Each structure stands twice: as C-alpha cells, then as structure tokens.
Amino acid sequence: MTPQIEPSLRAQDLDFAFGQRKVLHDVHLELYPGEVLAIVGESGSGKSTLLRLLHGDLRPSRGVVEADDGHGRRCDLAELRQQELRQLQRSRWALMTQNSRDSLRMQHSAGANIIERRLAQGERSYARLRAEAKDWLARVEIDPDRIDDTPQQFSGGMLQRLQLARVLISRPSILLLDEPTSGLDLSVQAAVLDLIRKLVQSSAMAVALVTHDLGVARLLAQRLIILQGGRVVEAGLVDQVLEDPQHPYSQLLVASVLTL
Amino acid sequence: MNLLEVESLEKTFTLHLRGGQRLPTLRAPDFQLQAGECVALRGPSGAGKSTLLRCVFGSYRVDSGSIYLHHQQQCLELSRADSRSILDARRWSMAYASQFLRVIPRVSTLAIVAEPALLQGKSDTEAAARARELLLRLNIPLALHHLPPASFSGGEQQRVNVARTLIGTHPLLLLDEPTASLDPANAALILAEIRRAKENGRSILLILHDPQQIRKLADRELILAAGDACS
C-alpha cells in the first residue's frame, strides 16, 4: 500500500558513543525524496551528532547508514573509500552546520564560497558562475553587490544564509540542515523556509532538519522524530506528533511552546 | 462501494503531565460515506466532532476501531497505516480544512492555494489559473492574490483555507466549520462551492452548526452525543 519509492537515505540500528559516553541508541530513520524529516529534542539529545553520522563524518559504533549516491545506487557509507565519500559530500549530499565559521572559507569572497561546489561539479565559465552566485545571494536575501566581500564582514545571520546558498547551489539530493533558521530575524526566516520548501518540491530533495523550533518543524516537515537522551521516543507525521503526542517527553515539549 | 467506512472508533487522550489522566473524547457511531454524499456532524461542544475529522485525516491516532478509505483503487485502513501511506492518501484522496490557516509567512495567497494542485502534478500555470479562479469565486479580489494571507481578515483567511482544500481532485473533503466566522453572503459562497464539489461526485464530511445550512447542503446528519463520548 505504501507508495513504492526507495528512501534516499536509511539509517538502521545506529549506536554512537564519544568514548565511554553513549550519545545515540538504536536510532532508525529514513529520508525520502521530496520530503522533509524534522529532528527535534532537548540540547544534548544527539541531534547534531546524528546529522554527522548521516553525512558520513562520523562512523556509528553499531548500525548502518545507506544513502543514494546520486546515480540511483545505494551505498553503505562505511564501505566507501575516503575519496568517494568526499566526492559525494561535495556534490550530491550537503550538510549545513550550526557553526557557519567552521563551514565557510572566511578569507575567501562570498562569491568564491558559493561557487565552490559548482566548480567541483565541473562548471568552468566565470561569467556563468558569477551570475549563479549573484542569483543565489539574492535568493537568500543578501545584497548581490556584496559578492566580493569576505564573510568576515557578514553578520551571523548572513553567514548562515551564505552557507545555505553555498550548499543549495549544487542541487543536492540529500540535504542535512542543523538549525538553519535559528539566528535569523523572523522575516528572513520566513524567506529561507519558503526557499527550502520550493526546492524540496521542485527538485525532490530529501531533507533532514534539526530544529528547536516546533513551529518551523510544523511548517516545513511532513514527518518528525523526537529524540531524548539519544533515543527516538516518538516518530510520526508532524501534525500527529504535535497535535496528539503520546510520549511524556513529547507532551512536555508541545506543552512548552509559546504561542502569540 | 463506500469511499469511507468508520467502525467502532474510539479516541482517548492520556495526559502524562497530569499524572496519566485519561480523557475519553470520542466514541463515534459506525457510518459509511459514498461518492457524492455530504454528511454533517452534529452534537454539542465536546462531543468529539473535530476529533473525528482529525482521526480520519490521521492527525490523531485512534485507540480502537477502523477507518477504511478507498484510496488508489484499494482499501487503506488509516488507523493502522504508516506515515507515508497517510501522506499519499492526503496527496490524492483526502483534503482537510481546519478552522485555522497555518502557512509559512510571506508566501503569497495564490501560491498557498495552488500548492495541493502542484503536488497532484499540475503545471505551475494550470495550478495558478485554477487557484485564481477559485479565489475569485470565493470573493477574494485579484489585488490580494499576491499578498500573504497573514494580513487578511479572519473571514478572508478562512476562504483561503477552504480554497486550498478544494483545489485538488481529492474525492474526500473534511471540513471543520467552514462557515464559522463568515457573514451570510460569504458563507453562501462557501456553501455554493461545497455543493459544486458534491455535484462533481466528491464526498464531504463536515461540521456545521446552522440547521438551515445543514438542511440545504447535507444528505444526512451524524449525531455525536456528549454522553456517548464521556460515559
């Protein structure tokens, strides 16, 4: 009965520990093309670590992460050679981290940051790259005239949007977002949410979205999982989990939301 | 063949933050809905009318009973279906209008209304044309179409919400008080659109309070009794 579409990414039975401290227990999730999965939970519940496992930056101590390689083949991340993994991370998959300064090249211009993945994809025309970079700056609501400025002159919210433009330009098939709108003022947040929504619809990206903001999860995601202490305590449709939470922790989270 | 069949449906909320207090909210009478049929839910506040709609749409998980939906030439049991099957049913077979419009701020009204048609594979042009036509019929003037609905009046937002629910080809429409905050003229526009949907063979399960509106629109009523739900 379920539509016969293969997930773009599947994580099964994931455990992960930093030394003796176990961070994730028995996590299972799937990302499908054209869908957003929200991952919510308290600070320290393992959300960001989970994204790094899904991106292949960390290896699980138990379990498997399988992802689409962009050619319709599924690969086990643990079995990829380092070079293959890097190549996929630069082209088909994308991770937007919480700390923009770690991901951006702060000494290079905004434009150079944005086009890096297009260069990796083989685009060589300077004029086209510059036009694309300007277009993406405008899409994330940064003045395209700032293309030659270095990110050091940008505010935190601008860095976040620059990072988003930098990953979205390559049209990744799997997009992992860690708090993509947390530092943004509300009007820019709305624009960024709309941009992501349109791209998911038009390009069938599969998105995992880590967020503290249940409102953001509600508007952008179709499905949602709640992590507590590194375990998935509840999973389901976003409206199901937010309107009819079953687990005590989910009920506490939903009851704690501020409304206008 | 029934489009929708509901059997022995019960829903209780368990409030873990209140020491596990159990709140029985719905015990629905069995019913079926056929193609082109309109059924109005009635009953006092707290009888579980909205709860029933949300159980059918999959927003609430049910404790016991079954909800059978005719979906893509098959019978989908919604109360046991996985998330992706429910999403597929929402894309093609059932649409729901809550009492409140919940959308990404800054997105235009036209884009909000067109979205379900786009998800059903309509082209941008086709979906936008259909959205424009529906909005105009619901008395939302052209000048407002490119604006986000956040600045609209409650009644305008409600009509946007109903337009968004009607634009697709979903055979089942679930409408929670579609005329609640509307003046008689605008309520009549909504009722006319619902009647048009019914004449096109779509089935409607809705909550209405005005007996006159019910008489004009619904084929029958389904009474939910508060006593049933709370006993």
UniProtKB/TrEMBL annotation, chain A:
GO terms for biological process: organic phosphonate catabolic process. Coiled coil: none annotated. It comes from the Bacteria. GO terms for molecular function: ATP binding; ATP hydrolysis activity. Gene3D superfamilies: P-loop containing nucleotide triphosphate hydrolases. Keywords: ATP-binding, Nucleotide-binding. The keyword Thylakoid does not apply. Residues 9-254 form the ABC transporter domain. PROSITE patterns: ABC_TRANSPORTER_1, ABC_TRANSPORTER_2. PANTHER family: PHOSPHONATES UTILIZATION ATP-BINDING PROTEIN PHNK-RELATED (PTHR42764). This is ATP-binding cassette domain-containing protein. It comes from Igneacidithiobacillus copahuensis. The lineage of its organism: Bacteria, Pseudomonadati, Pseudomonadota, Acidithiobacillia, Acidithiobacillales.
Automatic annotation (TrEMBL), chain B:
The keyword Transmembrane does not apply. GO terms for molecular function: ATP binding; ATP hydrolysis activity; lyase activity; transmembrane transporter activity. Residues 4-229 form the ABC transporter domain. The keyword Glycoprotein does not apply. InterPro entries: AAA+_ATPase, ABC_transporter-like_ATP-bd, ABC_transporter-like_CS, ABC_transpr_LolD-like, CP_lyase_PhnL, P-loop_NTPase. Keywords: ATP-binding, Lyase, Nucleotide-binding. GO terms for cellular component: plasma membrane. Coiled coil: none annotated. This is Phosphonate C-P lyase system protein PhnL. It comes from Igneacidithiobacillus copahuensis.
